[in-house]
Amino acid sequence: MTAPTGIALLGATGSIGETAQRVVARHPDRFRFVALTANGNRDGLRAAADRWAPEFVGLVEPGTAPLPTGWRAGASALVDAAQHPDAAVVLNAVVGAAGLEATLAGVRAGKRVALANKESLVVGGPLVQAAVRAPGGGAVIPVDSEHSALLQCLAGRIGGDGPGLLPVAGVRRMIVTASGGPFRTWEAARIAAATRADALNHPTWSMGRKITVDSASLANKALEVIEAHVLFGVPYDRIEVVVHPQSIVHSMVEFEDGSVIAQLGVPSMELPVLYALTYPDRLVDSGVPTFDPVAASPLTFEPVRHEAFPTLGLGIAAGRQGGAAPAVFNAANEAAVARFLAGDLGFGGIPAAIEAALARHGDLPGNDLSSLLAADAAARALVSEFR
Fold first, then answer.
1. Which phi-psi region, left, alpha or beta, contains residue 181 (left: φ > 0; alpha: ψ -120 to 50)?
2. Least packed by Cβ within 10 Å: which of 8, 159, 311, 315?
């Protein structure tokens, strides 16, 4: 019998990390966790470590209390976990730009990186591309539901020497769906005055707080458009966003002959997590309800109201600009969302702060990791003082 595939799970106590644990629990003969990390949730990480008995446990922000024997502390734990010799797969579920160095470490170590950390490609897309293409480089398989859907729509079309991490040919358009979040029908002035409780009340998905706020502002769709561009090499003018309130159609691909293939399913992250672990194969699994097209109907689609959700346009423009601009957009958004969640910035201040950061720092160089990290820091510093 083949030994179970070793997985390093970065961000074990977050929404995706807990989802991954549920998936692996159903397939103990196929997968095992050899490394687990968390940011600051000591109790959650202890529970996961007790359950899975991994060889490596790391806590990025340990606080002042002594760590259990053998645990690793600090940001370097992410990189060390990603390079663990018994991990064939690195599931990067870290939130934010903090996941970039671990993604690079995993790819450079020849691992399959199952990537739920879209910021790795937004901030450092060219660096990840270079690592994948270097001798001995690993692979990147998306975990985000939209990009997993695109990958599944493209079955049989991946390959060649195109510019993306998963180059494709014959694609006319990629259509990424958005639920519209809790403010889908709100007027712009009401959105700008939204409270934290308003923004965290997502209608279809259960996610972490930062990602839920990004869904409310559509910042997440900007990040996903950039990620789709980096992953598949499709130009920005052929990647579209449409609002789909039911969250059943996760993405669509239109081919050069006019045919459109869509990937559908109940809104559960267990599906893309499992697919990223088994790609290009599929594993028999019963973790999510059977799709009922009658019960799910009607399926509707709407245009994005760009004037009400300016963050989307700011992010796509940053992606088109390239260089450090995507890193500045991402860092400014992370910092602004943190201030919003802390009650220190209004919801309407999120796009305003991002726009100010891009105006000041969007032209900074982004040729290497150090310059990208400098741009990231500059954007965060500006947003921290933004009024």
1. left
2. 159
Domain-embedded: residue 138: yes
Q: Tell if the pTM clears 0.90, that is, is over it.
A: yes
Positive or negative, the CA dihedral 90, 96, 100, 101 is: negative
Tell me if 86 is assigned to some domain: yes
In degrees and rounded to multiples of 5, residue 31 shows phi and psi of -140, 155
- Largest interatomic CA distance in the chain: 62
Q: Which of 306, 268, 263, 304 is nearest to 286 (CA)?
A: 268
**Mutual orientation of helices 145-153 and 219-232 as an angle, nearest 10°?**
30
359: number of Cβ within 10 Å: 11
**pLDDT digits over 29-69, tens only?**
999 999 999 999 999 999 999 999 999 999 999 988 899 99
54 within a domain of the structure (yes/no): yes
Proportion of the chain in helix, strand, coil states, percent, rounded to 5:
45, 15, 40
**Owning domain of residue 138:** 5-142
Structurally, the chain folds into a number of domains equal to 1
